[in-house]
Amino acid sequence: MVEKYKKTGRIKKYEILLCLLILAAIAAGLILPGTGPSALPDEFCNRAVLWIGCIYVMMWLFRKKKYKKSVRIVIMALCVAACVWIAREPVRDLAVGPRDVKLSDIQTIHSQSASGILSSHYYLTGTVEDGARLRVEISSDDYARMKNAKEVRIEYYPYTGRVRKVYASRL
Fold first, then answer.
1. Are residues 88 and 104 in the same domain?
2. pTM of the shown model
3. Of 96, 114, 138, which residue sits at a domain end?
4. Among 141, 147, 149, which Cα is nearest to 165's?
5. What is the Cα gyration radius of the chain?
6. CA nearest 157: which of 74, 94, 69?
7. Same-domain check for residues 126 and 104
8. For the chain, which has fewer Cβ within 10 Å, the N-terminal or C-terminal residue?
């Protein structure tokens, strides 16, 4: 008598690989500083977690035959659209490059969520030469350095709002 193949809930190799990739992206995002030359790679690591999640959903749907083909295609198209939407800002920053501006009338802001765990954000807000207000994310070291600054010159990525370099003009 031939035994029928039993479906088991075993973890597939690609699922392990995707979990390892997510853990690597999270670890890299935590290790890389949010400002400086690694600001853009840090931004890509943060978004890679969502990309990998979308890839997992697409692979899972590809294997599941119990859903109608049209439903699977629509959900996969939504996942691809989400990946493109998530990637748009860092890709535009990569294409344009950093901008150099001089900020006056600056303020430094420290924002923390209710939990307070790994959620402190530091921002620099100032007026650009043309009169527009600009808000960019800075590191805790830059925050401490610029608390009493009057004006500052920065290189920043315009679409993600990440600072690449800070040149303190008058502290």
1. no
2. 0.75
3. 96
4. 141
5. 22
6. 94
7. yes
8. N
Per-residue pLDDT reduced to its tens digit, 40-49? 888 898 899 8
How does residue 4 score in pLDDT terms, banded at 50, 70 and 90? low
Are residues 141 and 120 in contact, defined by beta-carbon separation less than 8 angstroms? no
Residues for the chain: how many in total? 171
Report which DSSP code applies to 105: E
**Residue 58, CB-side half-sphere exposure with 13 Å CA sphere:** 17
Alpha carbon distances (Å) from 26 to 15, 47, 56, 123? 16, 10, 16, 22
pLDDT digits (tens, 9 = 90+) for 73-129: 898 899 999 999 999 999 999 999 999 999 988 888 888 766 556 677 888 899 998
Residue 11 has pLDDT above 80, yes or no: no
Number of separate domains in the chain: 2
Residue 63 in any domain: the answer is yes
Q: What does pLDDT average to over the chain?
A: 84
**Residue type for position 33:** P
Contact 125, 137 (CB under 8 A): no
Residue with tokens 């709002």: 161
Residues 37, 90 share a domain: yes
Between CA 94 and CA 38 the distance in angstroms is 12
